[in-house]
Design goal:
mainly alpha, Fumarase C, Chain B, domain 1, Fumarase C, Chain A, domain 2, Ribonucleotide Reductase Protein R1, domain 1, 3 domains, two-stranded antiparallel sheet, 17 helices, elongated
């Protein structure tokens, strides 16, 4: 022991702990054992564990298992943390021993020391409140951590889903604004039949809306909690009423419609529910990435690309080419999407690696699923605020490209046949003469007939071109 440390003991022996640290011996061991990434637990993850401890203290006070004064001190300590204090005390690397025992004990020790300080005790003495005997009463890392992952994911999803929904609504608004603008459709990055810009942008919104529905369906499974399962799901050391009381208490603390899990053994064995949410979030990310790639393509140019959309300029695009402006926000979104895909790959691999009664890979599962939710929600918000709300069409280029499209010959096929239309397409591409002009020049249709059959707006709706003309 020195002026900067204090001596504590745990089941393995003596440990030096920083003198003023609110954590204790087991946390100090974890810090020494896992100097891996320098990454700390997600604040939402810490909050979720603290809420579980707070709920347990309240439940045990109600049942009489924990003395009211001690319970009140733990609750007050938890409230301090949930209000934003003492965040620097959660120091265990995200890559740590399996199951998350180190994080669980980090929280137990901090709460015990805060409670004891409130009651006049010394740091590290763990009297009258002990991190295991009192803060961790009727709990195990094995039911605390999976419950915390669920609570934290559900908490982060509130803002994450909201950001995607706002983005989808902005795309819907742009779609309505752009609905009269006909443009060239493209498949295989080649000319295809015309489509309205509003239809194209509205489809982006629809993909996000469907993605949100999938995420909500997956998130519903996370409402089933296995808290009270303790070590292997059987509930040893927990009173029979404890699981239902905990769910009710957590429901009140979080405002979430939480449910008592029907099979706590299953909920401890499997991380499938979390993997399912991660997968649904990944699918949503894939659609968001596709939209961002489309924005980059349609805004390409301004002289050598499509130049059909103009994105708001947010920063200079080059350190050497003056005046260059890049699609910086969509580029950022694409990179976030790649990272979310990596997060999900890790969650999937770790979820498969559970053995028998427990998946010990929960720390990396929690880190990745929470990280994915956080960064994709932030990316969606920024894409909305800095790109989609200021999105503008370049009507001249929309008209230019759609009139040059060789795919307009498709509308002629019902009149002149597929083979003749294909030959006309080839001649149009070789000569540079538009399909509209060429079909009249060659006498295949009169100018009036061509105007009806090649009415661009009508080509964006169901029907046989010119059938009623």
């Amino acid at each position: 022991m020195t002026d900067t440390t204090r001596l504590e003991r745990d089941p393995l022996g003596e440990v030096l702990v920083p003198r003023d640290a609110l954590y204790g011996a087991q946390t100090a061991r974890a810090v020494a054992n896992f100097p891996i990434s320098g990454l700390r637990p997600d604040p939402a993850f810490v909050d979720a564990v603290v809420r579980i401890k707070r709920a347990a203290a309240s439940v045990h006070r109600g049942t009489g298992r924990l003395e009211a004064g001690l319970a009140d001190a733990v609750v007050a300590a938890a409230d301090e943390i949930l209000a934003g204090a003492h965040r620097e005390q959660f120091v265990v690397d995200v890559f740590q021993a399996g199951a998350g025992t180190s994080l669980n004990m980090n929280v137990n020790e901090v709460l015990a020391n805060l409670a004891n300080r409130r009651l006049g005790g010394a740091l590290g003495a763990y009297a009258p409140v002990h991190p295991n005997d009192h803060v961790n009463m009727a709990q195990s890392t094995n039911d605390v951590i999976p419950t915390a992952i669920r609570l934290a994911a559900l908490q982060l999803l509130v803002d994450g889903i909201a950001a995607v929904e706002v983005l989808a609504a902005s795309l819907r608004a742009r779609a309505a604004e752009f609905d009269d603008l006909v443009k060239a459709g493209r498949t295989h990055l080649q000319d295809a039949m015309p489509i309205r810009l509003g239809q194209e942008v509205g489809a982006w919104a629809g993909s996000l809306e469907r993605g949100v529905r999938r995420v909500r369906e997956a998130a519903d499974y996370l409402l089933d909690l296995g808290i009270g399962g303790t070590a292997v799901g059987t509930g040893v050391n927990a009173e029979p009423a404890y699981p239902s009381l905990m769910v009710a208490e957590l429901r009140g603390i979080t405002g979430l419609p939480l449910r008592e899990g029907a099979d706590r053994v299953q909920l401890m064995q499997s991380m499938g529910d979390v993997a399912g949410l991660s997968a649904a979030w990944r699918v949503l990310a894939l659609d968001l990435g596709k939209i961002s790639s489309d924005l980059r393509l349609l805004a390409s140019g301004p002289r050598t690309g499509f130049d059909e959309l103009r994105l708001p300029p947010v920063q200079p695009g080059s350190s050497i080419m003056p005046g260059k402006v890049n699609p910086s926000i969509p580029e950022m979104v694409n990179q976030v999407v790649f990272q979310v895909m990596g997060h999900d790959a890790t969650v999937s691999a770790a979820a498969e690696q559970g053995q028998l009664e427990l998946n010990v890979m929960m720390p990396v599962i929690g880190h990745n699923v929470l990280g994915a939710i956080r960064i994709l929600g932030n990316a969606a918000r920024v894409l909305d605020e800095r790109t989609v709300r200021g999105l503008r069409p370049n009507e001249a280029m929309l008209a230019h490209w759609v009139e040059r499209s060789a795919a307009l010959a498709t509308a002629l096929a019902p009149r002149i046949g597929y083979a003749a239309a294909a030959a006309l397409t080839k001649r149009s591409v070789e000569s540079g003469v538009s399909v509209r002009d060429l079909v009249v020049r060659e006498g295949l249709l009169s100018a009036d007939e061509a105007a009806v059959v090649l009415d661009l707006r009508r080509l964006t709706e169901p029907g046989v071109p010119g059938a009623d003309g």
